[in-house]
Amino acid sequence: MPIQSASVEQVAIDVAQKPDRVPWRFTGAAIMKLTQGQTYLAIPGPSVMPEAVLRAMHRAAPNIYEGELIEMTHGLLPDLKKIAGTRHDVAIYIGNGHAVWEASLANVIAEGDRVLMPATGAFGHGWREVAAGLGAECEVIDFGRRCPMDPAKVAEALAADKSHSIKAVLAVHVDTSTSVRNDIAALRAAIDATGHPALLMVDCIASLGCDRFEMDAWGADVMIAASQKGLMVPPGMAFVFFNEKAAARRAEMPRVSRYWDWAPRANPEAYYQLFCGTAPTHHLYGLRASLDMILDEGLEQVWQRHDVLARAIWAACDAWSAEGPLELNIADEAHRSRAVTSLRIGKEHGTRLRRWCQDQAGVTLGIGLGMATEDDPQSDGFFRFGHMGHVNAQMIMGLLASVQTGLIALDIPHGSGAIDAAARVIAEA
Amino acid sequence: MPIQSASVEQVAIDVAQKPDRVPWRFTGAAIMKLTQGQTYLAIPGPSVMPEAVLRAMHRAAPNIYEGELIEMTHGLLPDLKKIAGTRHDVAIYIGNGHAVWEASLANVIAEGDRVLMPATGAFGHGWREVAAGLGAECEVIDFGRRCPMDPAKVAEALAADKSHSIKAVLAVHVDTSTSVRNDIAALRAAIDATGHPALLMVDCIASLGCDRFEMDAWGADVMIAASQKGLMVPPGMAFVFFNEKAAARRAEMPRVSRYWDWAPRANPEAYYQLFCGTAPTHHLYGLRASLDMILDEGLEQVWQRHDVLARAIWAACDAWSAEGPLELNIADEAHRSRAVTSLRIGKEHGTRLRRWCQDQAGVTLGIGLGMATEDDPQSDGFFRFGHMGHVNAQMIMGLLASVQTGLIALDIPHGSGAIDAAARVIAEA
Amino acid sequence: MPIQSASVEQVAIDVAQKPDRVPWRFTGAAIMKLTQGQTYLAIPGPSVMPEAVLRAMHRAAPNIYEGELIEMTHGLLPDLKKIAGTRHDVAIYIGNGHAVWEASLANVIAEGDRVLMPATGAFGHGWREVAAGLGAECEVIDFGRRCPMDPAKVAEALAADKSHSIKAVLAVHVDTSTSVRNDIAALRAAIDATGHPALLMVDCIASLGCDRFEMDAWGADVMIAASQKGLMVPPGMAFVFFNEKAAARRAEMPRVSRYWDWAPRANPEAYYQLFCGTAPTHHLYGLRASLDMILDEGLEQVWQRHDVLARAIWAACDAWSAEGPLELNIADEAHRSRAVTSLRIGKEHGTRLRRWCQDQAGVTLGIGLGMATEDDPQSDGFFRFGHMGHVNAQMIMGLLASVQTGLIALDIPHGSGAIDAAARVIAEA
Amino acid sequence: MPIQSASVEQVAIDVAQKPDRVPWRFTGAAIMKLTQGQTYLAIPGPSVMPEAVLRAMHRAAPNIYEGELIEMTHGLLPDLKKIAGTRHDVAIYIGNGHAVWEASLANVIAEGDRVLMPATGAFGHGWREVAAGLGAECEVIDFGRRCPMDPAKVAEALAADKSHSIKAVLAVHVDTSTSVRNDIAALRAAIDATGHPALLMVDCIASLGCDRFEMDAWGADVMIAASQKGLMVPPGMAFVFFNEKAAARRAEMPRVSRYWDWAPRANPEAYYQLFCGTAPTHHLYGLRASLDMILDEGLEQVWQRHDVLARAIWAACDAWSAEGPLELNIADEAHRSRAVTSLRIGKEHGTRLRRWCQDQAGVTLGIGLGMATEDDPQSDGFFRFGHMGHVNAQMIMGLLASVQTGLIALDIPHGSGAIDAAARVIAEA
């Protein structure tokens, strides 16, 4: 509420009596918010949208039959493939990550087919459920929540499948819940070593444009991604990349639904087939702006930026961990995502810390996901940092220094020197 | 190109010799564009987006786990139902019209089921193909491209289906290609008269928020719509409304894929189930702005506005038709859409007129769709006006007066008095 | 208000009794608005802002000491000069038209100096008052409200000033109130013929970027303009162009206030001098976008577009005038502005017609300004069309067809064929 | 540049040989930018603009003669007065701070009048120059660059002016160059003690909406402010508040120029007089959004937020200062601004640190201003933090942690514990 006339007068008297010569302090009951400013959404997606993307989406509807939209769209496809590291095909879907979980499977997995899921977090289990929803039989190898998959175990399972009834291995590159990063090239090598013909399908939703990924070089047959993480576009668009082996498998399918069918999307005879109907016009303009930013910066440079910033975060976390309850979910740096970091801090601290950061500092951390235990059914002891896409040094240092402030404010024990440790990583970059 | 120094001097000499006393005219070769200004996209979707919608979408990503987005989303559902005229359920999909063609069918039509399609344009045939893609057997009653369906013929087909193997009648309320408007209440009455239990599924993609539609009152079991027409939001979001009869049918389905399943979307236990994964955050903000506009204006008033403007368009078209080749595709006013108007003008004129309007006046008309004949394989003799959503008198009068200008410019014979005829409809409103 | 549950039921009963087979019409008391859509502000400034300009202004604040803003600003100056047709100097002011009325005078007119004002409308008188406010003695030659100035009369007044006490002739190129366009080259010639050394200062606020203007070629010593008309940028920035003769006069001034002084603005040693303090950052980005549009189109083409559209308006007005009270304020086409058109229609009709257009059609016309008479103290019998800047054929045809609709709706007598007459001008362009 | 086909193949070979099992590091020559993300402009104005303000300005031009703009504008005046702590008058100018320096003086200081300037930084001297430009005679008491004015010295000078030829004392509340904050209430008391009738004119450009200021209670007769600092609106609008004593003085002035005259602006008979011509339409919408934010938060709360964040900054600076060259310009906390902080770090470090922060971290610090010495003619040894307006804890912690990173990266000696010190201030708030 604004100043009341009364209070103006009141202040007048006060000031007359003791003018503002000593540092002025507040004593009243009014509640101040230290969050009134640019807030920062540091969750693992949707990520921070660049103004250039939002501005590109702030425009009148274009003609969807002729003209600039059509040309612009065709330019998107090669650029998407560059970012995926593939020379093969891409189908764009209006949808989120779940949509392309289903779309990718619908093209190559028929009812009754078997798939193998080496799970390393909640999103692996989520994809498996979608497969089950299509009538597939799913074999899960559960690697828990704190370590990457072991390619040898996957190879073992495939080797045991003499009849080659397993049609696909579903691998999540980075599981957003655990922040584990799996080694896709090693998985490919392990599959190849068995001679098993199963497709390697990879979920890069949380990693594309953040962590290095090279679809062709690493031997993924199908790769899926979405707009709202490393690609920095609002949720609502997702992608299925597929190679010739996958295309051949699709050709053998008894039936693929019209909407999920990737064939006309990837090789359309008419523009509307690209999206099976009306194009997602505004998202396409946003994507164009985002791809321009990524390619202007350079994909290697984008990956390197994410690497430095991730290591800065890990350095701070290592320092905090030296004392007190905070702990990185993935102990081995070699298996950590460079886009998201999952943390453990104990049931009594996690949600409290998240709330403090949001309500007192203006930075929103990601909730723990898929980490529930009997003791902690709401995953209150977990939280996550998203550091994907449009992130730079001042944002990450602000994130870390805000968490440092929260740890102090809430009196949560923690090791010292976290900010300096992070600063040194950036300073040396 | 800007003025050259040379030309400045040249002009100086010219002016000194004969100062600017006579009306100044251009003689040079430079090409002037009369389109440099606010352009107007008068195609039948995506429709003109209100600035309030675009502004609402120009914002930072929100938290998708807690806070204002969650509350706002829950407020959308009752408002969507108001606009659909239903007290039943709605499932929101990230997708376009084709997506909800498939989504709606996937919940109630199993492989091998039969559906009945009384087709009155290209979009009826499109929906039928999607049904076929899901493994349904489709019976088509084709009513051609210039008239509405005859409910009696549909009743006949149902009556012949003694075994009740037809699970659904797929009806398009307004077919965007032909601009025919079908009488859904009459269709319902005809179905009921046969005692056949088939679901009545209605595509209102082109009509919702433009032409009166009352889902419950008219007896539709399933209704589908999309964001980019009467709802004035960019393409990328679509809706399936369904009643208890349809829900019961879904409960009997052997299997519904996770992504298409409307049950958790309509009655979610957790927020993310509303969209089967990440929410379409920015579209939701846009939809909120759009629903606010519609409900502030009043749904009856929105319908009435579309009615007056449609009649103004028809009056102009009737005047033009009095002489020359232009003709309304749907002769009987009682069967015309109030959101889109399809026109016939002859192969030599249609595309030419569209191009003139776009390149000389700044208004883009819709292409003819699904109207190809042997003589006119590219539908060059057809065009359409979109007049859905965010349209008012000055826009429609500008559209009509621009077409009038094009007819004059291209020397296409036409009856006189079109603008006055349209003006009179508006003046009397 | 949205549909009430009750009304849904009510409709259900109604529809059951008489399904929607006959054209559906409204009878109720609810008020429909035919204005719900893109509204069009057709006043003589601020003009319609292109989305590209607004988008360019929707951005974070830039550094004002280093970097891209500084470079961008320097690029604006030559482009502004191209549009003014000058090789001399320009000073940019944060301000409106009144600001540069005062700024321009403050640099060359000292207290007690005499100026000569050949007035052709309210804005001439306005500028004169500003001169008086600076202590100048103003001699007015009033040419009324319906015709241009007569250069011979100006020459006469100068010839009578043997002592050369008149320091400047203040000429308004286009007076926005009357829509008269004065012949500046002819005025220059007339002044030159007298040998009088008075500066020729020209107000191009309403004409720059619309009507041809060539500062150097036509011999203006000082020219002023503002952002919100032909330059299509929101109000808040204005310009003073001046040549060496004017600069010499400024050098002789006893004192010029720091803020109005054009010398450091035009030839700054430091960036902040360009604007005498903090730069108008967002307006500068808007101006860049606007200048890009103008120069991409071509200045000659911009002028030609305004010419064609103005002639279309005049043709419609001529047709309307053939019968009834509507009349163009400036009878002779040779003296009409191509940016604004003033109209007379009689006290009982003007305000009514404006209100109808705004409230029923969504187009806002300009009020009559400076046209008050004893009979019509509120200028109710006058209105104006603004047709400056970002205007194209469909906008102007929409404007005219909306007025046509208003004339019909309000039963105001008018000649027929107005829209066709306008259409023919555009068709022949 | 995007990935080359060649590099894809190259990577394929590399990966086949040594799959991605060890932490992946960059070795190449490509240049990574850690600035690609949300950049933060931490200069002392223009300040960070809230998205709500920018969004409010992204709109079509309104009618400037009738309707919502007019009503909205009238609502701004009382809210501006609340923020200024006055019940008197306010005149709005299209302009920057320099404009209201001149506007305020032009209403009360005639040619030849004397003014007294107790200067505490560059902006004091700037205002004095503007006074000189109006023909005033200026007496300066220079308090240097590191401490506030001494009211007793001002009183002395006034007491010596027996003839009351000094018409005004020009005081800068916060001088943005030095970041000193002067005690206006004490100055008023000192002036009053002398019985001298000079007006007290106060420049609050850098402080309004950041540091507590109460115009009426503290006894300022005239107060000036601008839009681009605590008011969070782009540069281009400024304000002169004045009380009855100042109004009386204006009434005695021999002449005030039309544009600067505050009388019709503050008490207009017609809307256009509010701005002496065309209104700054888009800035007005932005100001409305900004005032809503300030008043929703509460002015006391806004001040308190600035206080906490300023003390966090000072705590960090104190820690840094404990070792090495960094030093706060104003030693005594009681005299520091809560909107801007000036720092000294030595010629070899200042510009280097600023550049590092901007080019490596994405945060832009303010340059040193008005601090030049013979040794350091470019003020390279100085820099400033702006912390005004739309600032919260995560922004300030990000700023401080980025500077910490820069100090480490550039090997500039500094005391330890800065971030923790700042965090403790915020944690205790």
Automatic annotation (TrEMBL), chains A, B, C, D:
Residues 104-368 form the Aminotransferase class V domain. Its cofactor is pyridoxal 5'-phosphate. InterPro entries: Aminotrans_V_dom, PyrdxlP-dep_Trfase, PyrdxlP-dep_Trfase_major, PyrdxlP-dep_Trfase_small, SP_NH2Trfase/AEP_transaminase. It comes from the Bacteria. Keywords: Pyridoxal phosphate. Belongs to the class-V pyridoxal-phosphate-dependent aminotransferase family. This is Alanine-glyoxylate transaminase / serine-glyoxylate transaminase / serine-pyruvate transaminase. It comes from Shimia sagamensis.
